[in-house]
Specification:
heterodimer, A: 147 residues, mainly alpha, 5 helices, 67% helix, flat, B: 505 residues, two-stranded antiparallel ribbon, 1% strand, disordered C terminus
């Protein structure tokens, strides 16, 4: 039976194994003179031990199939908007990127009206740029045409 | 004693002079605004405004910068409580119950308790700073790498032990955070670890993107798509202030948080972060209703917020008494003092008593200004919750992205926020706590450095951790916690054994 703890514990074991594998690129050093791979390897092994323990003791936790994921479509939409922001900030500039993100979230995902979407997009994307970049002098990226 | 009071009187005559008071007020206002903006924490705020003070004399400059620091610490709780966005790692614990209180319609009470707790902690710890600075600072100097390592290990064990779930899951999350903290340049050998050619990861994974991802973004991913999104909260005027019952519940945690925060704050490092975690854990452990933590427990806001602010004053102890900065912000204030020709250290009290005592007195005055400033603003801030969630969360998301980007001007931080946001979403679905990940991430570089430095000092002998009294005591306490955590497991095993004959029969 796959429970939440067993699934999470297995994932921790996998992460630990990957970390151990990747640590072999650096000198391990010795027990008395640790090298750069010493602590990561130690922690990865600890993670594996904890992961195995979570799996072994995880039979009483909730079944994985019982966890509700009904909001996943919305979550994917928001994730996509954030990924677009990360991709676009340096390419399109702050205002265009945030404008597009807000239009997508408000108009497409939340189905708000055109006027509300436009007003909020202009206020938030433009206002935050004005506050941070112009007033607080935190440099924000500019895209085509200096936008 | 009499001499101290006379000196303090001199300090008040400096701090209450119109020129100094004005700059202290400006510092508090700017600091509060800086703290409310996610991503612009006290460090960034002071860095940005340091050049503004160049034209001022040393006393005014230091008082203004200290005001920004306090103000930012006060203001940082606002976004944590209202939006679940921690502006910095020290606000992470406030997010948990502060936000839960906000969702229950008690945002005003949470903000007021945070403000009053911060005021009490700030004022009491300044008094402690005045009388205890020299002896405590010399005690803190006895902490070498071995003691640091033991202390940090104990910090993790305390957090995991006092976890609401199992200690095992808490430790697993802490180990994951520590492992994430290994990314970046190894401080002792210069190796570039787990960075895969991404230069921005050289300094390691930032705490802000991880905290905002695990708390802010994960919350949005979980909540935005709910069939019934959170209701719009329309707070009434009388609901803005805490009830008598809430004040009673906040009283003891505020005092405990103050003592804990001040004592932990003296120890150099990210002490104010650790103090909030320890305070939250202690409050949950000794509470008669631990099940309420995470669902809007008053003590979960009062304790960490007080600890956070007390640690802020505590961090000034080694800075003023020894000239040793205990935190990045203290280092920046130290640099600001030096820019103005003042050298902090044991001689400062005698060489420049007006500045030293003026600075101490300005902390009292600053705390009063912040309380007066923050309580009326509670009503203003709480109005944010009137906005329907489908309209509010896109704005919060923009704040998250902007705040994370603004720290280093790097999109890598936005990607880190995104990945940790998904991680936080999945972990919350699987009923794992994410706060230990943040603590692990904060402690990892210090822990590794302390371990390796201690071993270098001892010629590779691990006995150093048990032969030094402070280190041995700290490890002993940690061992007791592990044994206490294992006790139910052993008891359960015995129960199973005792049932066996009956079942066989």
């Amino acid at each position: 039976m796959v429970t939440t703890d067993r699934a999470a514990g297995s994932a921790l074991v996998v992460i630990g194994l990957i970390a151990v594998w990747e640590s072999r690129r650096f000198p391990l050093g010795s027990l008395h003179r640790p090298g750069p791979a010493y602590m990561p390897t130690l922690l990865a092994l600890l993670l594996i031990v904890f992961g195995v323990a979570v799996v072994l003791l995880g039979s009483r936790s909730q079944r994985l199939s019982e966890v509700g994921w009904h909001e996943w479509r919305h979550a994917v939409g928001i994730f996509a908007a954030c990924a677009f922001a990360a991709w676009g900030l340096d390419r399109l500039g702050y205002r265009l990127t945030m404008g597009a993100v807000l239009v997508f979230l408000l108009f497409v995902l939340e189905r708000k009206g055109v006027i509300l979407t436009a007003a909020l997009t202009l206020a938030i994307a433009g206002g935050s740029f004005l506050l941070f970049d112009t007033l607080l002098r935190v440099p924000l990226p500019r895209g085509p045409f200096g936008l | 004693m009499l001499e101290t009071i006379q000196s303090l009187a001199l300090g008040f005559s400096v701090a209450l002079s119109p020129g100094v008071l004005w700059y202290g007020f400006i510092g508090c206002v700017v600091g509060t605004l800086v703290g409310v903006l996610p991503g612009v924490g006290p460090l960034a705020g002071i860095s940005l405004l340091l050049p503004v003070t160049y034209g001022l004399d040393a006393t005014r400059a230091v008082v203004m910068l200290a005001g920004i620091y306090y103000g930012a610490m006060y203001g940082g709780s606002t976004t944590s409580i209202l939006m679940r966005i921690p502006g910095e790692a020290a606000s992470v614990m406030t997010c948990i119950d502060g936000y839960a209180m906000a969702r229950k319609g008690r945002a005003g009470a949470a903000l007021a308790i945070a403000a009053v707790g911060s005021y009490v902690a700030g004022t009491v710890s300044v008094i402690a700073l005045m009388f205890l600075a020299p002896p405590l600072a010399s005690f803190a100097l006895r902490f070498g790498p071995a003691e640091y390592f033991s202390l940090l290990l104990l910090g993790l064990l305390v957090l995991a032990y006092m976890n609401s779930g199992s200690m095992l899951k808490g430790l697993a999350m802490a180990a994951l955070g520590l492992l994430l903290g290994m990314i970046g340049i190894d401080q002792m050998s210069g190796y570039f670890r787990f960075a895969y050619g991404i230069a921005e990861l050289g300094d390691g994974i930032g705490v802000v993107p991880v905290a905002v991802g695990l708390f802010g973004l994960a919350e949005i991913l979980l909540t935005a798509g709910m069939k019934n999104p959170p209701e719009v909260i329309k707070p009434r005027m009388r609901e803005l202030l805490p009830s008598r019952q809430e004040w009673r519940e906040a009283n003891a945690p505020i005092w405990r948080g103050t003592v804990l925060g001040f004592l932990i704050g003296i120890i150099p490092g990210s002490a104010h972060v650790i103090s909030t975690f320890v305070s939250y854990a202690v409050e949950r452990k000794i509470s008669k209703h631990p099940e309420e933590f995470g669902k809007g427990a008053v003590a979960g806001v009062a304790g960490p917020e007080s600890a956070n602010n007390a640690a802020t004053s505590g961090a000034f102890v080694p800075m003023l008494a020894l000239g040793v900065p205990g935190s990045p912000v203290a280092a920046l204030l130290l640099a600001a003092m030096m820019v103005h020709g003042v050298t902090p250290g044991p001689l400062l009290i005698n060489s420049d008593p007006r500045l030293f005592w003026g600075f101490i007195a300005s902390m009292y005055v600053g705390n009063v200004i912040l309380l007066i400033l923050n309580l009326p603003l509670v009503g203003l801030f709480v109005n944010l919750l009137r906005v329907p969630y489908p309209v509010l969360y896109p704005s919060i998301l923009v704040c998250c992205i902007l705040g994370v980007y603004a720290v280093n001007g790097s999109v890598i931080d936005v990607w880190i926020m995104l990945v940790t946001g998904v991680l936080g979403y999945v972990l919350r679905k699987l009923d794992f706590e994410t706060a230990p990940i943040v603590l692990g991430l904060v402690l990892a570089p210090m822990m590794e450095l302390s371990l390796r430095q201690a071993l270098s000092l001892s010629g590779g002998r691990y006995e150093i951790f048990v032969t030094r009294p402070i280190s041995a005591t700290l490890l002993g306490v940690g061992a007791v916690l592990v044994l206490l955590a294992l006790r139910p497991l052993i008891t359960r095993t015995l129960d199973w054994r005792s049932r066996l004959p009956a079942e066989e029969a």
